[in-house]
Amino acid sequence: MSDDFLHTLTHAHQQAAVPLPAPAFCHWAEQVLQLLFPERADRPLSTTDAVAATISQLRSDLAVLLSVVPIAEPASAIAADFIEQLPQLRELLLLDAAAIVAADPAAEGLLEVIATYPGFYAIALHRLAHALHRLAVPRVPRLLSEFAHTRTGVDIHPGAQIGPSFCIDHGTGIVIGETTVIGAHVKIFQGVTLGALSVAKHLAHTKRHPTIEDDVVIYAGATILGGSTVIGRHSIIGGNVWLTESVPSHSRVYHQAQIQVTRTEDPTADIMFSI
Ligand SMILES: CC(=O)OC[C@H](N)C(=O)O
After folding, report:
1. Are 141 and 158 in contact (CB under 8 A)?
2. Which of 10, 91, 99, 255 is 20 to 30 A from 189 in CA distance terms?
3. Cross-referenced CDD domains, in alphabetical order (predicted)?
4. pLDDT at residue number 271
5. Which residue CA neighbors atom 6 of ligand 1 most closely?
6. Rounded Cα–Cα distance for residues 156 and 146 (Å)
7. What is the pTM of this model?
8. Which residues line ligand 1 at a C-beta cut-off of 6 Å?
9. Which pLDDT belongs to residue 218?
10. What is the position in ligand 1's atom list of the atom closest to the CA of 199?
11. How far, in Å, from the CA of 130 to the mean position of ligand 1?
12. pLDDT value, residue 19
């Protein structure tokens, strides 16, 4: 091993920013979800005093965790501001869970959705991350969204704006970009991408991802790209659609696959497909 390499690494370590305690932040977010939803709790809280003490503990834990993050305001003020939003966050998440129950014939009820659905978990962590993003907390929102991503395969940038009653069914392989705007009562399935039409560094801080208006359904594998792409309200986007332009309200957009089905009972017949 060369001395140069040792010195390079030493210098990199000396210059490094204070690392974020990622597991502690993720644990804190899990605790917030357990407070808001006893359905997810190891041990439900049985008295008002216990609830109040848990809220107070989560506030001070957040303030301590944020003390290593470079933020303009005092960590305690940000923590207090976040905790004030808990009633609204719970209300929004209950609407999301109810939307999943209402949409999914396989869902048995709120308890199952809140405790087990990856789509619910992904939107829950997104709403926490988005609240911190709006409070201008750097790095932590992305840390939480990547935590949800690793657990669910649902990659929602903390900056994405998502309206009430959002339903993700079969939450896996989903990408929702930073400047996406989603209205109320939108339903998406596995493999949906709401992405940028082109990826270039100079486009940072511009609207690169689509706008999905109220009551839109986007089926599995659909890809919708572009910052000026607007999917009008009450539209249905079919599975595997590739869409880079706006569609008006009440549109039905389908991908027509060209699939051929042939039959033969002769096992020695030529194989008709190629890879
Ligand atoms: C979701 C997506 O298209 O991302 C591309 C790139 N990271 C951007 O934010 O523009």
Report:
1. yes
2. 91
3. LbH_SAT
4. 58
5. 199
6. 8
7. 0.92
8. 175, 177-178, 195-196, 199, 208
9. 98
10. 10
11. 17
12. 82
pLDDT at 206: 94
Give the nearest ligand 1 atom to 203 CA: 10
Q: Quote ipTM for the complex.
A: 0.95
Task: Return the ligand 1 atom nearest residue 177 CA.
Answer: 1
Q: What is the distance between the alpha carbons of residues 40 and 111, in angstroms, rounded to a whole number?
A: 9
Distance 263 CA to ligand 1 centre (A): 43
**Closest atom of ligand 1 relative to the 195 alpha carbon:** 3
Cα(195) to ligand 1 centroid in Å equals: 6
Q: Which residues of the chain have pLDDT under 70?
A: 267-275
